[in-house]
Amino acid sequence: MFKKILKSYDYSLIIVLTMLVIFGLIMVYSASMVSAVQRYEVESDYFFQKQKLNLIISGLVFIVTAWIPYKMLQSNKILVPMVFLSLFGLGSLFVFGHVAGNAQSWFKIGASSLQPSEFVKLCVIIYLSAVYAKKQSYINEFNKGVVPPLAYLVLVVVFVAVQPDVGTAAIICLIAATVVFSSGMSFRNIGKLTGIGLLFAIPCLLIMKGILFSDVRIGRFLAFQDPFQHEQGVGWQLANSYMAVGSGGLKGLGLGQSIQKLGYLPESHTDFIMAVIAEELGIFGVGFVIVCLGYIVLRGIFIGIKCKDPFGSLLAIGISSMVGIQSFINLGGISGVIPLTGVPLPFVSYGGSSLLQLSIAMGILLNISMFVNYEQNYKQKNERTKPETTKKMNGQAFLFRK
Predict the structure, then answer these.
(1) To which H or E segment does residue 107 belong?
(2) pLDDT, average across residues 172-184
(3) What is the pLDDT of residue 145?
């Protein structure tokens, strides 16, 4: 049994994840070594050492979650405390939260920080997947099967948006929309939800216009339109990101040889780490990251399609969408496709909360994949042995009759 379980794990997913996080660790050191000394006045390997510790802790958590059966997450004994703890954590930020980057989104724990909204993304995926999986028999009854689970989503989005962290709130909405769209409800009900969402969003925008249209956020839109026109102000980061990406070319300047990380790109090891990768390793470095992220997303969707259990299927698709959406928003921001939102690049950017949450999510995804492969292999084995058993039994019956 134990050997069969081990054989059923998706080792291609493990290999790609391992390559990506190790590559990310190397690039965190390269991107942060100068800013660590100049800006933070610490040792050049300070962020590298912290990320290495984050990686060790996250790796252990990944192994544990990959072994625990994902179906346990569907239990009310886990769902109910998870919902209350996530809301309590978000609510506590307004009293005990630490302000950084114009948002009160972190708990300061010694020299480390914890961002609850990162873990809430996964909580939303688990909750919506579990509830809509249980409601499959009446998924198209709008008042009974569609609306009730969304109360939790609305509370979470409001709590995150008023921190204010509009980017993360938007990501949570997009992830939730993916799970809802994949839940099996009719397009009619999806259309109703979209209409209700727009009606709810309009008054929220009016109430929160002071937060949503602050000078910082308006500056991001101005930078998005033409960063070089505002190069000495709000367009500083994006303009230097363009220069980093443009100067990398095909092969890059070489590992550790970035110029823009020498004080020109303030968030070089977090939000703008891909700009440093492009400058130092060129198209090959960027391509490696995009291929790895693309494989994780597509593999997760494939696992979700293969999974016959509605909960496992929705969970896999939700986790895959989370990685894909965050990757697109980060890459779109540094390349000027969309305005900057301050979203880290999954598995690559520096950050303990993000890496830990993603490790939990990947462990769950790997566990779903293991169950899918195990059941498929077991079923195929039964189908191969069944005709032989039937033939043997028929032969024995024939001899007995004679």
Answers:
(1) strand 103-109
(2) 92
(3) 80
Classify residue 1: in a domain, yes or no.
no
Got the DSSP string for 279-341?
HHHHHHHHHHHHHHHHHHHHHHHHHHHH--SHHHHHHHHHHHHHHHHHHHHHHHHHHTSS---
pLDDT mean across residues, the chain: 86
Residue showing tokens 């002071």: 210
Q: What angle do CA 220, 166, 97 make, to 5 degrees?
A: 110
CA distance 353 to 344: 11
Could you tell me if residue 3 is inside a domain? no
Helix (H, G, I), strand (E, B) or coil at 114: strand
CA distance 239 to 335: 10
Distance (Å, whole) CA 285 – CA 348: 12
Q: Which of 98-107, 308-317, 336-345 has the lowest mean pLDDT?
A: 98-107
Q: Tell me what percent of the residues of the chain surpass a pLDDT of 90.
A: 49
Per-residue CA distances from 100 to 123, 165, 219, 270, 393 (Å): 23, 11, 18, 14, 73
Reported confidence tier of residue 226, pLDDT bands at 50, 70, 90 = confident
Q: What is the mean pLDDT of residues 47-59?
A: 95
Kindly state whether residue 205 falls inside one of the protein's structural domains. Answer: yes
* 3-state SS assignment for residue 342: coil
Percent of the chain with pLDDT over 70: 88
In a domain, 161, yes or no: yes
Instruction: Enter the tokens of residue 350.
Output: 């520096």
Question: Burial, 203: exposed, middle or buried (Cβ in 10 Å; 0-12, 13-18, 19+)?
Answer: exposed
Distances (CA, A) of 150 to 125, 146, 171, 183: 12, 8, 15, 13
Domain count, the chain: 1
Report which DSSP code applies to 74: G
Cβ proximity of 290 and 16 under 8 Å: no
Given a cut of 60, whether residue 231 has pLDDT beyond it is: yes
Q: Which domain holds residue 302?
A: 9-372
Mean predicted confidence (pLDDT) in 356-380: 89
